[in-house]
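Structure (tokenized):
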């Protein structure tokens, strides 16, 4: 179900800009929802699409079922994974948004919207479109059908072709302030006490997604070990062993993904205060973690090896002689 605009704590300005655009007579046909991962763009895009297609006097529709909202995201990796999705179980997804998905969407653009005057196309994330999909989408952006609007979620706008970016209006998402993060945690993880909320806020680097995952999965002990590895190094692998023990032998996928995001946020927090000689190592490790984060939902990584990889990347920033393992 699409979330109401009032629920987007910290992104009120973006929501008001979207409402103003809908109300205008010459609304731009393509939008980039741009900002770091974990700022709420996923939910925002669906709510924005629902608001766009809503007819006057009607309730906000469900973005996942409305016939005039088409969402292109990662499909299940195969038939077995599709069955898991249908059963509401965790499932593996394909690495990319494919050209076939874009072409199926374009076939629908040959007809008018089903229920109203407008149709919304959400691509989430546009960063993960394969090359053929990008080229196919560009044709639709160049000659958009009347009443069709595109919302491209992007964590890294620089990865998109300049020809895509130049045809889109950018809606930027900013990091949240501590009081806004606190409000988000209170709303979505009401069982978290004040100490847990404070720790989540400190670790999140302004990302509500990281803060919520921190509180929900109780990542305080893992975060403390990450900080020790960053500041002390881990030449004997002892801290990495403790990190793996803290994660457990068979952690839930959601907990594993949350740990990856936490590691990235921890490095981002560390960067500002680091001496220049160390900043290059932090940036390199952050880039490697970003790539792992992109791969983790689609690859069947061994949890223990992945945790050791995370620990090795963190250690590489503290001890220049130690390569990430």
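Design, position by position:
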């Amino acid at each position: 179900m699409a979330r109401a605009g009032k629920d987007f704590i910290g992104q009120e300005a973006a929501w008001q800009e979207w409402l103003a655009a809908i109300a205008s007579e010459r609304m731009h046909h393509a939008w980039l929802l741009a900002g770091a991962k974990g700022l709420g763009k996923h939910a925002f895009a669906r709510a924005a699409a629902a608001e766009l297609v809503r007819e006057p006097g009607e309730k906000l529709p469900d973005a996942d079922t409305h016939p005039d909202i088409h969402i292109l995201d990662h499909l299940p990796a195969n038939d077995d994974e599709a069955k898991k999705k249908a059963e509401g179980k965790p499932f593996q997804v394909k690495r990319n948004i494919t050209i076939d998905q874009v072409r199926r969407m374009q076939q629908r653009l040959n007809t008018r919207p089903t229920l109203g005057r407008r149709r919304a196309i959400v691509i989430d994330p546009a960063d993960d479109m394969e090359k053929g999909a990008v080229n196919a989408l560009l044709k639709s952006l160049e000659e958009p059908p009347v009443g069709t609007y595109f919302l491209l979620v992007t964590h890294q706008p620089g990865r998109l072709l300049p020809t895509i970016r130049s045809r889109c209006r950018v809606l930027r998402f900013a990091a949240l302030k501590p009081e806004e993060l606190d409000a988000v945690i209170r709303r979505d993880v009401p069982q978290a006490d004040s100490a847990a909320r404070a720790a989540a806020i400190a670790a999140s680097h302004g990302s509500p997604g990281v803060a919520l995952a921190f509180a929900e999965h109780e990542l305080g002990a893992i975060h403390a070990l990450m900080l020790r590895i960053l500041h002390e190094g881990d030449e004997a692998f002892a801290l990495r062993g403790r990190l793996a023990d803290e994660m457990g032998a068979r952690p839930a996928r959601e907990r594993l993904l949350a740990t990856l995001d936490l590691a990235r946020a921890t490095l981002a927090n560390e960067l500002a205060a680091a001496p220049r000689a160390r900043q290059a190592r932090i940036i390199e490790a952050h880039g490697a973690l970003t790539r792992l984060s992109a791969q983790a939902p689609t690859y069947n990584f061994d949890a223990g090896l992945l945790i050791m990889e995370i620990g090795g990347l963190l250690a590489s920033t503290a001890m220049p002689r130690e390569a990430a393992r």
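Reviewer-requested clarification: Residues 253-273 form the longest helix (21 residues). The radius of gyration is 21 Å.
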